[in-house]
Amino acid sequence: xxxxxxxxxxxxxxxxxxxxxxxxxxxxxxxxxxxxxxxxxxxxxxxxxxxxxxxxxxxxxxxxxxxxxxxxxxxxxxxxxxxxxxxxxxxxxxxxxxxxxxxxxxxxxxxxxxxxxxxxxxxxxxxxxxxxxxxxxxxxxxxxxxxxxxxxxxxxxxxxxxxxxxxxxxxxxxxxxxxxxxxxxxxxxxxxxxxxxxxxxxxxxxxxxxxxxxxxxxxxxxxxxxxxxxxxxxxxxxxxxxxxxxxxxxxxxxxxxxxxxxxxxxxxxxxx
Length: 272
Description:
By secondary structure, the chain is α/β, with parallel strands linked by helices. It is built from eleven helices and twelve strands.
């Protein structure tokens, strides 16, 4: 157990793309704040300060907190934390996409993200087709406000429904404006090799959630499970994925978990 958080530092990884070393882009790691949902609920600004002190360089917001979105924006800018995305509410995106986009923009987000459709709204392929239509509309509204739009699959999108995987419907019918946030754990939980998904969908993935898959199928800190992260990250960098966010939904000790994952990522050999 660590007794103190690591000192603040902007740890940056050299790209594995095959370009001259002095032209290599540099990569930072961030935190999906769902892992810190309790801390963010109690003290959002103090938690952002701890995230920066722990050595991370970006955050991804989930919903709203006890301070205005504009205040979150100010604090992330003061700390030098990029806002990789804001996860929006599905029903708001459907019913009032302009409000969802405005909220994400107020938080200084790079991207507005949908990561969850209520179960009762995704029981049939027709419902999935309706959601694709709603999200295509929302993506165009986001673009008009200078924001990107992306979708975060869990496991159920990779599981066939009446013989068709919802993820394949989205890949086929999403507006080209819509990118994806690949969660390494949930893809594997749904039977999809995350490395294979990256290779098959080059250029469509802009964000990643980094969490490992334990031998028993449970979530694990990066580097302690079965996913080949050096290979996955090498492919992601070749493809130009922009945001790499550590997350473990069920971490017993959220800060210890983040430190373990970050230490593992820093220690991984770079592949070209």
